[in-house]
Amino acid sequence: MAGISDLRKGLCIRYNGDIYSILETQHVKKARGAASMRVKMKSLTSGKVIENNFQASAQIEAIRVERHKYQYLYDSGEDLTFMHEETYEQIPISKKLIDNVELLTEGEMVEVLWNTEDDVALTVELPQYVIREVTYTEPGIKGDTATNTLKPATIEGGAEIRVPLFINQGDKVKVDTATKAYMERMK
User: Fold this and answer.
1) Cβ–Cβ contacts within 10 Å for residue 2, how many?
2) Do 65-125 and 129-186 share a fold?
3) What are the residue boundaries of the structural domains of the chain, listed by start?
4) Strands across the sheet containing 12-15
5) Res 72 pLDDT > 80
6) What is the distance between the alpha carbons of residues 83 and 61, in angstroms, rounded to a whole number?
7) Which of 34, 63, 90, 160 is deepest in the core (most CB within 10 A)?
8) Is the alpha carbon torsion for 150, 185, 171, 102 positive or negative?
9) Nearest to 55 by CA among 36, 71, 42, 27
10) For residue 102, is it left (φ>0), alpha (ψ between -120 and 50) or beta?
11) What CA–CA distance (Å, rounded) separates 177 from 130?
């Protein structure tokens, strides 16, 4: 069991019969009341994000997880097939466990979180940024650069993102995998 002082970003806990990963924590101390920890956490089974306050006396069940590097091989319908980096073991993982799955391309290295108690894959974490080629976008209007206007673009893998007007088809862009936000143009 863990106390509220052990809560930190990335920790996996069991709460209300589900497994959650902690996204944000904030220590709250009221004038006369006891301290508490405000936590934003994401369910690893449903993907739902919730907020909760844990009081100082709360006992939290921490889940032991392991991270292993896998390489994405191919799409097999509802599942994606990954290969372990060291053992070359191939495993299928449901697309439901992956956020922004359309940003994943064949050969990409990812981290898979495993629940060590059940030996079950909890989630797949993409790298923080990926570099993709723009496969389709409308040309920008010449001289229309006075504002930070964004236009839709399709990148390799089929994901749709918003890019600045100066980005053209064939350009490589850096994309944040958590938000699908354009970061910069690459050479």
Assistant:
1) 13
2) yes
3) 4-62, 65-125, 129-186
4) 49-55, 36-43, 18-28, 12-15, 61-62
5) yes
6) 31
7) 63
8) negative
9) 36
10) alpha
11) 7
| Token output for 124 | 């797949």
Architecture of the 65-125 domain: Beta Barrel (2.40)
pLDDT digits (tens, 9 = 90+) for 120-135: 888 899 999 999 999 9
Q: Does domain 4-62 have CATH number 2.30.30.30?
A: yes
What is the distance between the terminal CA atoms of the chain, rounded to a whole angstrom?
Answer: 49
How many Cα atoms are found within 13 Å in the side-chain-facing hemisphere of 77? 2
Q: Look at residue 39 and give its three-state secondary structure.
A: strand
pTM: 0.77
> C-alpha 69: how far from its chain's center?
15
How far is the C-alpha of 153 from the C-alpha of 105, rounded, in Å? 17
One CATH from 2.40.50.140, 3.30.1380.20, 2.40.10.220, 3.40.50.720 for 129-186: 2.40.50.140
